[in-house]
Design goal:
By secondary structure, the chain is mainly α. It has a single domain, classed as Growth Hormone, Chain: A (Up-down Bundle). The chain has 15 helices and no strands. The two termini are 13 Å apart. The relative contact order is 0.16.
Length: 464
């Protein structure tokens, strides 16, 4: 038997609210880490450090190549970990420390341009430092998030309880996202958007990341977990387990296209507000605040709705809303009313909640499917593959934005009144056109997804 008796998750067990909440605090830290880098780093590299946009996007993309090693290795090692803390929690502790330090490092780069060249002199040193800080961030993210995202599959096998767990996660993540994007943007505006302002945000963000992630580590000490399984399958048989898991492949494809849209939009929003429609970053809370409220209010409702229409149906609706919100930025102009910003943020919050809750709940179902195929507990490896796709998408967004801005000859010193139509279209590409297109692709892939509650129960009956 591969599950400690004292830690055995029951099929439809309702987990204690306190356990869900403690686990979900980790998402607060992850959201600050990921969204802070996604939303602020590109603006910081280009507008403060004076790194050329295309090269800044390339450095972010280059750092993600390392993920091809770090994510699978972390997943594999966590699957093989033994001890009284379970397979995942030891990794959460060290991931918290590295993640917090890396966030500070990214926003305290000790080199400011403009640089004559990024391949020699001070420009080369800046490139090396930026890349090293980004690799450190990637390492911390892998160490914490890969084992962290594997834990729900061990905590319960309840089909809808999994949605509830991730519902708690998305609520905490929305608060972290608000602080790292909207609140941080307002702080930067007030402090002058210079190097010192970004360093202050980096230090505060690092402290919050450390506190949140360590809280998740400590609070899940009594969480159910599976012990490691003995691997009696050949590498080919293990590989074929991934190949046969069509629902998992579909989820990866859906999240890849969706997250490309999200990362492009997150990185482009500050450029759009500051350089296109001449709006101070102190207005960001009028977008992020309603978005956070929508997540907190609507997430429990979405979980209940999914019990009637299914996870796939609720996910499709969320994707449609995401695309429409993206396209709505095409109508934004200087002097945009606060009410429209707030409405856009609120509706986007509903879409965000649905996209995250149901994607992650479906991912947990796919992890269980692999166990029925192979008899192995490989939640860490599945989480690693998902995490790699997540960070790959987070790198493609800034790369696309950087290339588009460079192609449009964007100059951060140009006042909004003199911004060319080409620059406006380049930014709209990242915050409107790409998110809408990616939402359509996600809906198309969802059409073929078939792993529902009945299918899982049928597999369980065969296994037991």
């Amino acid at each position: 038997m591969d599950i400690p008796l004292s830690k055995t998750p029951e099929l439809e067990r309702s987990l204690p609210v306190s356990l869900k909440a403690y686990w979900a605090t980790g998402a607060f830290g992850v959201a600050i880490l990921m969204n802070g880098i996604s939303a602020l780093a590109m603006f910081y590299f280009v507008s403060v450090l004076k790194i050329p946009p295309a090269f800044a996007g390339f450095l972010i993309f280059l750092s993600k190549i390392y993920d091809a090693i770090s994510d699978p290795l972390t997943g594999y090692m966590s699957d093989k970990t033994s001890g009284t803390q379970g397979r995942r929690r030891p990794w959460l502790f060290w991931g918290a420390i590295v993640s917090a330090f890396s966030f500070c490092a990214v926003f305290t780069i000790p080199f400011v341009g403009p640089f004559e060249s990024m391949t020699s002199g001070p420009g080369l040193m800046a490139s090396i430092y930026v890349l090293a800080a980004l690799v450190l961030y990637t390492s911390g993210y892998s160490l914490f998030n890969v084992p962290y995202m594997a834990m729900p599959a061990e905590m319960t096998t309840g089909y809808h309880e999994r949605s509830s767990i991730h519902g708690w996660r998305v609520m905490f993540a929305s608060i972290g996202g608000f602080l790292s994007q909207s609140a941080a943007g307002a702080v930067l505006q007030i402090m002058g958007k210079d190097w010192n302002a970004h360093a202050a945000v980096g230090a505060l963000g690092g402290a919050l990341i450390l506190a949140a992630m360590l809280t998740a580590w400590w609070g899940t000490r009594n969480a159910p977990y599976h012990a490691r399984t003995q691997n009696n399958l050949s590498f080919f048989e293990q590989f074929m387990g991934f190949v046969r898991n069509k629902p998992f492949q579909q989820i990866l494809a859906i999240k890849l296209v969706q997250l490309i849209g999200v990362s492009a939009s997150s990185g482009g929003l500050m450029f759009f507000l500051v350089s296109v429609i001449d709006m101070p970053l102190t207005k960001l809370p009028f977008i992020g605040g309603p978005m956070t409220i929508a997540v907190l209010v609507c997430t429990p409702l979405l979980v209940r709705i999914s019990k009637h229409v299914g996870k796939r149906g609720a996910y499709v609706v969320s994707s449609i809303i995401t695309g429409l919100v993206g396209l709505s930025w095409m109508t934004a102009i200087p002097g945009e009313p606060i009410t429209l910003l707030a409405l856009r943020g609120f509706v986007n919050g509903i879409a965000f909640a649905g996209n995250v809750v149901f994607a992650m709940s479906m991912l947990t179902d796919a992890m269980e499917l692999d166990y029925h195929y192979t008899g192995l507990r490989r939640e860490g490896m599945y989480s690693a593959l998902y995490s790699f796709v997540e960070k790959l998408a987070a790198a493609l967004g800034p790369l696309i934005l950087g290339l588009a801005l460079s192609g449009a000859k964007f100059n951060p010193l140009t006042p909004p009144s003199e911004v060319t139509p080409a620059v406006r279209e380049a930014v709209l590409l990242s915050i409107a056109y790409i998110p809408a297109t990616m939402s359509l692709l996600a809906i198309f892939i969802l059409w073929f997804y078939r792993l529902d509650e009945a299918a899982l129960n049928k597999l369980r009956a065969k296994s037991f």
